[in-house]
Amino acid sequence: MANRIIMDAGHGGRDNGASYGDRIEKEDNLAMTLAVGKILEEMGFDVVYTREEDIYQAPFRKATIANEAGGDLFVSIHRNSSEIANQYQGVETLVYSEGGFPQEVANNINNELEKVGYINLGIEERPRLVVLNSTQMPAVLVEVGFINSDDDNQLFENKFEETANAIAEGIAMSFLA
Fold first, then answer.
1. pLDDT tens-digit readout, 72-131
2. Which domain, by its residues, includes 135?
3. I need a labelling partner for 119 at 20 to 30 A (CA). Which of 69, 81, 100, 155 fits?
4. Could you tell me what percent of the chain has a pLDDT over 90?
């Protein structure tokens, strides 16, 4: 039986997330989530999405969808942001707590994204995030570059497929280890 991956596109509907110029985080998140999910499906994973269109769901609702679907891993896709444009760049993956399978997944995703050209900012514990603390399965939240970094946006645009493949590969290799 194939592993079930719950793919969550962060924000949505009335919740735009961060923005920079004409870029809106919820749109980048949804596009990347659907691309990664498609690749995972092609690899033989069973993929369940928390959303496949621009709708709002409270974070607890996203966790509930994941729990009801009985996933083996929850992956939430986001873009980071900072107070000053072009202050930071790079990928970071958030986990409930360090160690175990979530940290392995986070390391694999970050390392694969680094190969695409993103700066690897590492892993950060975020136990207060609802999608990390209310899911009954291992969970990671991937910050796919800074939405207010011109360099990260260039990578996100020009290497979109490579970015999606890197995230999918990082997930897949975690289940093969």
1. 999 999 999 999 999 999 999 999 999 999 999 999 999 999 999 999 999 999 999 999
2. 4-176
3. 100
4. 98
Domain count, the chain: 1
Cα of 174 vs its chain's centroid, Å: 15
pLDDT in tens, 142-158: 999 999 999 999 999 99
Contact 118, 90 (CB under 8 A): yes
Q: How far apart (Å, rounded) are the C-alpha atoms in residues 41 and 61?
A: 23
In angstroms, the CA 166 to CA 38 distance is 13
d(CA 132, CA 154): 29
In terms of C-beta density within 10 A (0-12 exposed, 13-18 middle, 19 or more buried), how is residue 92 classed?
buried
Helix/strand number for the chain, H first, E second: 6, 8
